[in-house]
Amino acid sequence: MGRSLYTKLVLIIMTLIVAFMVVVGAFLLHGVRSFYLNQFYEGMQTVFANEELADSLRAAADSDQAVEGISEILKANIGRLGIDSGSRNYYILDGKTGEYLTGSNNPEGGIVNTANILTAMTGASGYKSDAAADFMDVAIPLSGEGGSYIVYIIDNKATVQSLNGDLSRIILQAMAIGLIISVLMSLLLAKTLVTPLQELTHAAESVASGDFEHKVDNPSRDEIGVLTQTFNDMAGTLEDTLDDLKKSEQMRKEFVANVSHELRTPITSVKSYSETLLDDPAMDPEMRAKFLNVIVNESDRMSKIVQDLLTLSRFDAGSIEFEFTTFSFEKSVKDVYSAMRLEAQNHEHEFTLEFMSAMPEIVGDRGRIEQVLMNMVSNAIKYTKNGGRIKITAGAKNGTVWCSVRDNGIGIPRQDVEHVFDRFYRVDKARSRESGGTGLGLSIANEIVLRHNGTLKLDSKTGRGTVITVTLPVEGPEHE
Ligand code: ADP
Question: Whose alpha carbon is nearest atom 12 of ligand 1?
Answer without folding.
Answer: 420
